[in-house]
Amino acid sequence: MRYLIISDIHANAVALETVLEAAAVQGFDEVWCLGDIVGYGPDPNECVEKVRDVATVVLAGNHDWAALGKLDVNDFNPEARQAVEWTQEQLTDESRAYLLQLPPRVDAVAELFTLAHGSPRHPIWEYILYPSTASENFEHFETPFCLVGHTHQAVLFRRDPVDGAVQALMPALEYPLPLHRAAEQGVRLIINPGSVGQPRDGDPRASFAIYDAAQGVFTYYRVSYHIEETQERMRAVGLPERLITRLEYGW
Ligand code: ZN
User: Fold this and answer.
1) 111, 113, 169, 219: which is deepest, by most CB within 10 A?
2) 8 CA → ligand 1 middle, Å
């Protein structure tokens, strides 16, 4: 089985379609989505429908909860809040019903993985940006590996089996990481596949990853999408300018 792993789509249907096409070239059997299907972007219902159609394991993120009114929007910055309020007005009853039943964490997926939107400790809110935060989170899941999103940064946190030290590693693109060998050696990882619809690691291309269970490898990919098309759709519906321009910088 080959699993396509996507996260933080943020209602960017152009990016999502491009990722699904690029991943189809590589080949995949199932899709796992780590949350934040909506928020920021212009196509919330289209993205919910697409994820519902293609994904087998889907998490809720903080923006999904905000769009459902399950989180206080005063905790968001002004532009994000404006996007949340716009998204709330757009969501169909069907989209709301789908988002409402999503969990923020699922354990023991394909045996080796725990899936959480932000972190295993605080699945909705916590950002794992640094090795220190990652280090504390290894106690909060049982499987060798945890997949997280939320920061919109493609990164791996590796816990050493001997001394327990945690380091952040920048993933090499299109390089198959030997995941099963790592598990055999007692290495544990918190893995962020990056963001489909609003990358924040300086690379504006859409990010995704594929786990090949037969080969025991995990591979990161980036793909360029038509950013201007998403930006035009955002302008047409009056979303904040800062959210529009940030897409081309990848921040
Ligand atoms: Zn997000």
Assistant:
1) 113
2) 5
Ligand 1 mean position to 9 CA, how many Å? 7
Model confidence, pTM: 0.97
The DSSP line for 209-228 is EEEETTTTEEEEEEE---HH
- 62 Cα: distance to centroid of ligand 1 (angstroms): 7
Kindly report the number of other CB atoms within 10 A of residue 64's CB atom.
30
- Whole-number Å distance, alpha carbon 177 to ligand 1 midpoint, is 25
2-249 belongs to which CATH class?
alpha beta
Mean pLDDT in residue range 21-25? 98
* Phi-psi region at 201: left, alpha or beta (left = phi > 0; alpha = psi -120 to 50): alpha
User: How much distance in Å is there from the Cα of 147 to the middle of ligand 1?
Assistant: 14
Q: Which helix (H) or strand (E) holds 89?
A: helix 78-90
The tens digit of pLDDT for each residue in 32-43 reads 999 999 999 999
